[in-house]
């Protein structure tokens, strides 16, 4: 970090009064900083912080103190694209070194659907994307420090930033105890099995082929759950996405294995992930679980519906889609899935918000046909999904982006956690087996909470 050179850059900057914010980009590789230290240091910003890490570590980004957000009560691709470019137009961006690799992103997403939510999701607007004061890129070791133009003091801003960075680097790691459980219960387990039976009775091979039904498990604890404990636990499972998203008094957490899509240049990458079997930890049994999954007719059917739907949803955006003829196995720590990678070359005018609208919800979390399944879920499923199974991710000014399907997730308030898990129901599904499958799917979040699955 060459402070003198940075100050020279700043001395040349003319603040543009048509903008609302100044955003400085600088390297932070000289500081020993990680997400634990950042959250520990910025405790006062609780309720306005996020951490997003891709499953392949392409992105590992922490945002602190939402300065401004794009928000909508109804999803509209056009309006969102305008709001996004209006927001970026308000920002005067100043890189302090040449050739830096990161770019300023917005973090957020949309709720699963626009069903009226009960109070538990009130902190989250239907669609929202946040622009934070501090954006730490922990992959490229860079920082975006953004402030309202009116607050900018060019002669002291560098000193302020480096002072804060030193303080963050000096934070000492703490040991945390797992919170003690007060109560743990499945919400309406028998009613859920009856709903699965009902779905099986209305599903067929043509008109209504698949619906994904989710259920919830509620845990309460003897004390408030410390965010730093959760952040630490989130590192325990690798190979999945990490979403830690605070908004007001709510916290949403996900360790999803499922990418909705990512876009780099003209290339879109996505995948079909559907069809599941438990990973037991016993080598011999697990080989059997995998070969069962690859050969089981019901799981293959569930999977093919997802692949078919994604490929057809992409058609308006591309002339060229590529995918393998046979699914492979995606190995997560607690569960195996059938998995088909899909790649497409996007046409020039493909908008990210249009893509999001077209692909979400895939039949891995909705069903087939999509509208019929969505309607069934809204009318019949207990409670509201909110951000469960919703698209959440990062988007850049040039539309480079990565979105996750936020399954294996939970919503936390003070000392309670509501866990969500769903599974694909097709003609012939068994409610007992699906109940067991959703039980297994609670494990990643229970692990984050330091609780054993029962
Ligand atoms: C809806 C969930 O999982 C989906 C993703 C992968 C496999 C699935 C399945 O086999 O049913 C589900 O479609 C969930 O974990 O809540």
Automatic annotation (TrEMBL):
Pfam family, one: Chorismate_bind
Top-level class of the enzyme under EC nomenclature: isomerase
EC number: 5.4.4.2
Keywords for the protein's UniProt record, in alphabetical order: Isomerase
Substrates-to-products reaction catalysed: chorismate = isochorismate
Residue span, Chorismate-utilising enzyme C-terminal domain: 190-441
Keyword Protein biosynthesis attributed: no
GO MF annotation list: isochorismate synthase activity
Any single GO BP term: salicylic acid biosynthetic process
Protein family (similarity comment): Belongs to the isochorismate synthase family.
Record protein name field: isochorismate synthase
